[in-house]
Amino acid sequence: MSDKKKVLAAMSGGVDSSVAAALLLEDYEVTGATMKLFANEDIELSRDKTCCSLDDVEDARFVAHKLGFRHYVFQFGERFRECVMERFSNAYINGLTPNPCIDCNRFLKFDALLKRAQVLGQDYIATGHYVRRRFDEESGRFQLLTGKDPAKDQSYVLYGLTQEQLAHTLFPVGELTKAETREIAARLGLINAAKPDSQDICFVPDGDYAAFIESFTGRSFPKGRFIDSQGNYLGEHSGIIRYTIGQRKGLGIALGKPAYVLSKDIAANTVTLGSNEELFSDTVFADDVNWLSVLNPGEPLRAQAKVRYNMKAQPCTVFPLSEAEIKVVFDSPQRAITPGQALVCYSGELLLCGGTITAKNPTKKPNIKV
């Protein structure tokens, strides 16, 4: 009987999670697991643009077989619908622009999958995320750090992890670059060594969020008014869910100069347009904040922060307002700070905390189903 620790490796069918599983084999007893979240035909899925397709399940199974360990497929469709698809739709309906990958990690990979792993007697789960973890002896806390490859770092979408989850999760590719990961996969002869990275949101493969929301909810969204910052009428919009902060293309209105979405008012059904310069702000509020690698300091601290996934963390001051609310003031104004997206704060490579960007007052929360 093996005295190795047991790991349930989350396998999406992509190269990152496959190599993560392979790297564990020397030191752990590995079992592979793929989450089946929906049927391909439900959303006209294309394997070239997204993850979680039937082809991806088969790729994961093939890799597990080649590497010589068991592979399970877990049916998590109902939980995915409730915790990701419904929350995504509800957020847009409430005027927010959500990041469903954060919810998928929060409710599926690091909650439902971890609980299933524990039922199966596993010591850890492992994923192919490009992040690193360490245990800090001084604070007695597990800490999350950015991945070695800055171009692939995925810490932004994992700020919601708990200490319990981080204690039982391994990130084998966190010390690798993407190129190194592909080299390992090729050397092992894995079927997905050259497989493209997934793109877009998995359940909206064509990128038409509005069409998905209308189909998913059975609701239609009426036309309304485009206005400027002074409230002057500019034209008619095609339904408020079709717009997000910073958007320029697809507005369907000609003003003789570039126009961008500055804000949305759900109650009035108006979309405010303005100049690019008006999109910049140095102050942002967030709620539902999770202090991960450190405890809430209860006082202002210098840090760096991101307001979207694909940006470099910018210097700022973080002001804790309560246990779950913060205000961040950037040294330089940031463009298109968008309610519903994540605000994630760092100290160098260490992820401090993260939360959801609020529209105005962080104590006034929209009605988002949990």
Short structural description:
The chain folds into 3 domains: 5-188, HUPs (Rossmann fold, 3-Layer(aba) Sandwich); 221-274, SH3 type barrels (Roll), CATH 2.30.30.280; 280-357, Translation factors (Elongation Factor Tu (Ef-tu), domain 3), CATH 2.40.30.
Description:
- The chain has helices at 15-24, 54-67, 77-93, 100-119, 163-167, 178-188, 209-217, and strands spanning 5-10, 28-36, 71-75, 124-126, 131-136, 141-146, 169-170, 224-227, 233-237, 260-265, 270-274, 280-291, 301-306, 314-322, 325-335, 342-347, 350-357.
- Helix content is 23%, strand content 29%.
- The two termini are 42 Å apart.
- Helix 1 (15-24) crosses helix 6 (178-188), helix 3 (77-93) packs antiparallel against helix 4 (100-119) and helix 3 crosses helix 7.
- A hairpin with a 2-residue loop joins strand 14 (314-322) and strand 15 (325-335).
- The strands form 4 sheets. A 6-stranded antiparallel beta barrel has the order 12-15-14-13-16-17. It has a 5-stranded parallel sheet with strand order 3-2-1-4-7, sandwiched between helices.
- The protein has 3 domains: 5-188, Rossmann fold (3-Layer(aba) Sandwich); 221-274, Adenine nucleotide alpha hydrolases-like domains (SH3 type barrels); 280-357, Translation factors (Elongation Factor Tu (Ef-tu), domain 3), CATH 2.40.30.10.
- The protein contains 7 helices and 17 strands.
- By secondary structure, it is α/β, with parallel strands linked by helices.
